[in-house]
Design goal:
This protein is about 10% helix and about 55% strand. With about 290 residues, it is mainly beta. The protein has a single domain (about 1-289), classed as Lipocalin, CATH 2.40.128.
Length: about 290
């Protein structure tokens, strides 16, 4: 009986559905929405000595200007663009630090289906005139790589733990080029780094309930969803991003048995000259098995 209880408390796979939307913050602009479906699996034999896992995410992102009803390009502060991509990720945890790497391939532009999805979403759920989606960026293919490192310090143990984390990362490719640093503080009942839902880790399904505060800084080398494809783009409306911006927010996360619930709030400074700050909400559910 005891061995069965232990076995039932371990998961090796996970399916996660995540939805970002600024409609819940009573705005409808910039990073307007994102929809992601992720499958994650733990690796019995990895490339190192840490606890490793592999994930696959298909996601669609929607970006619009501040004024979504004007057809005059001079009244828009950023181009319409959608992105549809497949991301493969690997991560490894050992002690109080972890490494991760991922590869993203996808398409930006009309063929991403983002414009059609947002118009359908407005008609069904928002019950308002949908964005006009004029002068959308041209279709272009993208490939991008991401690498990151994470280090944690536990200041107080469970049942109400306090954990601090620093998380630098780099992005390189045709879609994103940036250097970024996240600073996060966690408060509440939380698993160790190797199995906590704070970083979408799978393994133990012990109960977790905690909240976190975060802040970050990003230096941008290139942003194809504002500037177009670096290899060449004939889109009518392209702009240069702010090379530096800051962001922050908070999260409330809860794992109950094999179910994981996540509510997040994000706010960031303007991404380009002439744009405004932006905020959106994260809603996510995951099932471990």
């Amino acid at each position: 009986m005891e061995s069965k209880i232990v076995s039932d408390s371990i998961s090796h796979h996970q399916i996660r559905l995540k939805h970002d939307n600024d409609f819940f913050t009573l705005t409808d602009r910039y990073y307007s929405s994102g929809l992601y479906l992720t499958y994650t699996s733990s690796l019995k034999k990895g490339i190192g000595k840490g606890q490793e896992q592999l994930s696959f995410t298909i996601g669609q992102e929607v970006y619009t200007p501040f004024n979504i009803i004007t057809t005059n390009i001079e009244e828009q502060d950023r181009p319409y663009v959608g992105f549809l991509g497949l991301k493969t990720g690997w991560s490894s945890v050992k002690n109080k630090h972890s490494w991760d790497a991922s590869l993203l391939v996808g398409i930006a532009g009309n063929n991403s289906g983002a414009g059609g999805f947002q118009r359908w979403y407005h008609k069904i759920f928002v019950v308002s005139d949908p964005p006009v989606w004029v002068d959308e960026m041209d279709n272009s293919l993208h490939a991008n790589g991401y690498v990151g490192y994470l280090k944690e310090w536990t200041l107080a143990p469970n049942p109400f733990s306090i954990t601090l984390a620093v998380q630098p990362s780099l992005a390189f490719g045709t879609r994103d080029q940036f250097a970024q640093a996240n600073f996060i503080a966690y408060f509440g009942r939380r698993d160790p780094l190797a199995s906590t839902m704070a970083y979408q880790r799978i393994g133990n399904t012990r109960r977790e309930i905690f909240f976190s505060l975060r802040a970050g800084y990003r230096y941008v080398g290139y942003n194809a969803l504002l500037e177009g494809n670096a290899l060449g783009d004939n889109s009518i409306f392209l702009i240069s991003p702010n090379r530096e911006f800051v962001f922050g927010g908070f999260d409330v996360q809860h794992r109950f048995k094999k179910n994981e619930y996540w509510f997040g709030y994000r706010i960031q400074s303007p991404e380009a000259t002439g744009t405004q700050s932006h905020k959106y909400v994260i809603l996510s559910y995951a099932r471990n098995f």
